[in-house]
Structures are given as structure tokens and as C-alpha cells.
Amino acid sequence: MRGKGMIDGLENWRESDHRERALLMHLLRGDFQGKAEILEQMSSVEVMRISPTGSLKLRSQGPLAIVKDNDAPSPRPNDHIPIESFYDDEAPNQKSIVRIARLVRLALHVTNGRISELEVYKEDGSPIRTDPYEVDLSKVHFY
Questions:
Q1: Cα separations in angstroms, 58 against 47, 119, 123, 127
Q2: Any idea what the Cα angle at residue 74 is, between residues 71 and 75, rounded to 5°?
Q3: In whole angstroms, what separates CA 82 from the centre of its chain?
Q4: Fewer beta carbons under 10 A from the terminal one: N or C of the chain?
Q5: Contact call for residues 41 and 25 (beta carbons, < 8 A)
Q6: What sign results for the dihedral spanned by CA atoms 66, 55, 61, 76?
Q7: Hey, is 27 helix, strand or coil?
Q8: Per-residue pLDDT tens for 7-50?
């Protein structure tokens, strides 16, 4: 089990743990172009945590996926973001009028036909209170 905020060592590829895999599979549940190929890639996926927010670098084998950007195109060359989701990073017993600042964004990147990163970031850049791999998946919403 990975600790909150832990970053894997340089080129320390490993199998995804059960919480990382559960979140990735949850993100892949909708219908989108390239889904079948990405699901096949998931059978061999290896991960490396690359940021304290929980972002994962991904690598896999399997057929290449042709995907389209979900909403906002990726600024990276040959990269697409077919799935974007979010959850509210609200602390228990704390209510705020400005909810957008609390949103944690999850973006699955596909580069050159392969899943390449799960990008995790908070809209306002503040620390994430609820680890993306510990959040109740029913609270992860899609754009």
C-alpha cells in the first residue's frame, strides 16, 4: 500500500495496487472511442507515482487506441485526454460557497495510442485532502 504523497523512485515501475486499479477502471466505465483497446492495455499496465498529488505515469502493452479529446485538448504533442473526471475535496463538516476551488481533477492521458498518465491536480493548487485512491468512487463525477 502506497503512502499519501509518496513518489516512486526514478524508473521504479510496478504493478498498480488495488486502489489505483479500482480508480482507473472506474474512469474507464463510460463509452468512448478506443475503450476496448485501453481495457486490453490495462491487463499489462505498470505504474509509477510521479507527484505528491497522486499522478501516475502509465505504461502498457496491447493494441493502440485511437481516441478523441473529451473536452479540452491536451497541450502535449500526440497526446489526448479521452476521460476527465472530478471529485469534491471537501473536508468533513466544512461547507464553502466557492466549490470550484475544491475540485480535484482526474485526466487520463493517451499518448501515441497508449495510456500514459493519470494526471491528478486540484483546481486552486492547494493541498489535496482526500487522496484520489481513497475517495468514494461514487463521488467521482465525469464531464
A1: 5, 10, 23, 23
A2: 140
A3: 11
A4: N
A5: no
A6: positive
A7: helix
A8: 666 678 999 999 999 999 999 999 999 999 999 999 999 999 99
